């Protein structure tokens, strides 16, 4: 990611700092669909480079193999309402207004959201049906490379909250980084929830 980090660093120097401060936007329509007795909630992290998608209430086998991205729903919808210098579609940080917004439905803060308050990542929250599988996906796509692991299927439990992100790992110092979609459940009595790994199945 070093090729991408250099221009971003230069842009940050020009702008004084890179805080990536986010605006929290309640998604009342999505929140109204939530019933803790029959549904769960999921928070999916994304950015211009980390592209999130999901499909509620469907298994891997039910995905549309003929559709782009297997028919998964993008978590970020760009309206392209802003205009930038030199006919750019993004600002000097490579972001659009939607990338500065967290779309929320009431999931409590977590260790991840605390770390990302001034990060490039933002998140959107959605309702999933409980007791049946749902599919989630995050892929990395940038000028310096890409990584698109298989989508992940898991079965949300009623009243539970989950987080989905893309994680990179290396077996050793010289190995090529590998990426995989991570799903964790939020747990704990504290205001800032802790993450607990969730059993998942890749969609091959």
Name the helicity range: 10-25%
Strand content: 35-45%
Tally of helical runs: 3
Major sheet details = 6 strands, antiparallel
Number of strands: 13
Poorly predicted regions: 1-11
The tally of domains stands at: 1
Please state the overall shape, judged from the principal axes of the Cα atoms. Answer: globular
Report how far the terminal alpha carbons are from each other.
27 Å
Elements, N to C (H/E)? HEHEEEEHEEEEEEEE
Average pLDDT confidence is: 89
Query: What's the alpha carbon Rg, rounded to whole Å?
Result: 17 Å
Overall structural class, as computed from helix and strand content, comes to mainly beta
How would you describe this protein?
This protein has 204 residues and is mainly β. It has one domain (2-202). It is built from three helices and 13 strands; from the N terminus they run H-E-H-E-E-E-E-H-E-E-E-E-E-E-E-E. Strands 3, 4, 7, 8, 9 and 13 form a six-stranded antiparallel β-sheet that branches. Strands 6-2-10-11-12 form a five-stranded mixed β-sheet, with no helix packed on it. A two-stranded parallel ribbon has the order 1-5. The radius of gyration is 17 Å and the shape is globular.
Summarize the structure.
With 204 residues, this protein is mainly β. It is 11% helix and 35% strand. Strands 3, 4, 7, 8, 9 and 13 form a 6-stranded antiparallel β-sheet that branches.
SSE diagram, text form:
Layout: H1 2-15, E1 23-26, H2 28-31, E2 39-46, E3 50-55, E4 73-74, E5 101-104, H3 111-115, E6 122-129, E7 134-142, E8 145-147, E9 152-154, E10 161-169, E11 178-187, E12 194-197, E13 201-202
Parallel strand pairs: 1-5, 2-10
Antiparallel strand pairs: 2-6, 3-4, 3-7, 7-8, 7-9, 9-13, 10-11, 11-12
């Amino acid at each position: 990611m070093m090729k991408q980090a250099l221009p971003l660093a230069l842009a940050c120097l020009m702008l004084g700092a890179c805080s990536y401060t986010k605006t929290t936007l309640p998604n009342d329509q999505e929140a109204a669909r939530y019933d803790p007795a029959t549904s769960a909630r999921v928070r999916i992290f994304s950015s211009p480079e980390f592209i999130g998608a999901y499909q509620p209430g469907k298994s891997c086998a039910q995905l549309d193999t003929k559709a782009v991205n297997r028919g998964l729903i993008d978590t970020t919808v760009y309206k392209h309402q802003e205009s930038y210098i030199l006919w750019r579609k993004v600002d000097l940080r490579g972001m659009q207004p939607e990338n500065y917004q967290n779309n929320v439905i009431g999931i409590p803060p977590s260790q991840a959201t605390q770390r990302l308050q001034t990060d490039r990542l933002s998140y959107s929250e959605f309702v999933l049906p409980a007791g049946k599988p749902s599919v989630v996906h995050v892929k990395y796509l940038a000028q310096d490379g890409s990584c698109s692991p298989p989508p992940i299927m898991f079965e949300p439990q009623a009243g539970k909250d989950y987080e989905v992100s893309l994680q990179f790992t290396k077996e050793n110092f010289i190995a090529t980084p590998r990426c995989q979609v991570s799903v964790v459940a939020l747990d704990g009595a504290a205001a800032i929830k802790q993450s607990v790994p969730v059993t998942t199945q890749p969609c091959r």
